[in-house]
Amino acid sequence: MAGHQDASPWVPPSRDLADLETAAHECRGCELWEPATQVVFSSGARSASVMLVGEQPGDQEDRQGEPFIGPAGRVLDDALSAAAIDRGAVYLTNAVKHFRFEQRGKRRIHQKPELRHVNACHPWFDAELEAVQPRVVVALGATAARAVFGRTMKIGESRGRLLDLTQERSAIITSHPSAVLRLRGRGGYDEAFGELVNDLRLAAPYA
Fold first, then answer.
1. Which pLDDT tens digit goes with each residue over 35-47?
2. For residues 97 and 40, what is the distance between their CA atoms, to the nearest angstrom?
3. What pLDDT, in 10s, does the model give residues 79-138?
4. Interior CA angle at 190 toward 138 and 42, to 5°?
5. Where are the domains of the chain?
6. Which of 66, 95, 179, 199 sits between 20 and 30 A of 153, alpha carbons compared?
7. What's the pTM value of the predicted model, to 2 decimals?
8. How many Å from the N-terminal Cα to the C-terminal Cα in the chain?
């Protein structure tokens, strides 16, 4: 596996999600596996019609091995509830499966994954799409949108509507909950949260 540039050598032929998750723990498709505590694969309904895709695990997700359980995850929970979507009925994953961070003293500061990390992890995302077969994919933030569409997408220009991915599958682009969270106490939070809820409501009929 020397000279690899992505996760392909570690992705098994099986499209059983349990097999994929087990294999992901051995992935060495990029360097992010080394400082991370563990791979964070997915959670939620395995036969979901709606797949939510975030950027990467955060600090709490890395420690506990579950996506969207930190502060941004709580914002997402509130938004899903406001959009009348049962979190247990959707499939949650990330474009990049390991936490990228900078160590500052005892704190681990989130670092945005680079394009090469998104590309390296893309075989896992493709395998998840094949396994789950969602009707709608919700890209939470620009990094997720890049993974879903394979190109740069501007959230402001693309949000608020269903976009065609294939004949059978649509996509929605919206803000990442962490971007909404950063506005809390600084003004603009209610508006940003409302926009996230409105975007998620587009997926509600499929969930």
1. 999 999 999 998 9
2. 5
3. 999 999 999 999 999 999 999 999 999 999 999 999 999 999 999 999 999 999 999 999
4. 30
5. 8-206
6. 66
7. 0.95
8. 39
| Residue 129 token pair | 């799409």
Residue 160 — φ and ψ, nearest 5°? Answer: 85, 10
Beta bridge partners of 3: none
User: What is the dihedral sign for C-alpha 97, 100, 103, 109?
Assistant: negative
- What average pLDDT does the chain have? 95
Pairwise CA distance, residues 142 & 175, whole Å: 8
Class assignment of domain 8-206?
alpha beta
* Burial letters 97-127, b for 16+ CB under 10 A, else e: bbbbbeeeeeebebeebeeebbbbbbbbbeb
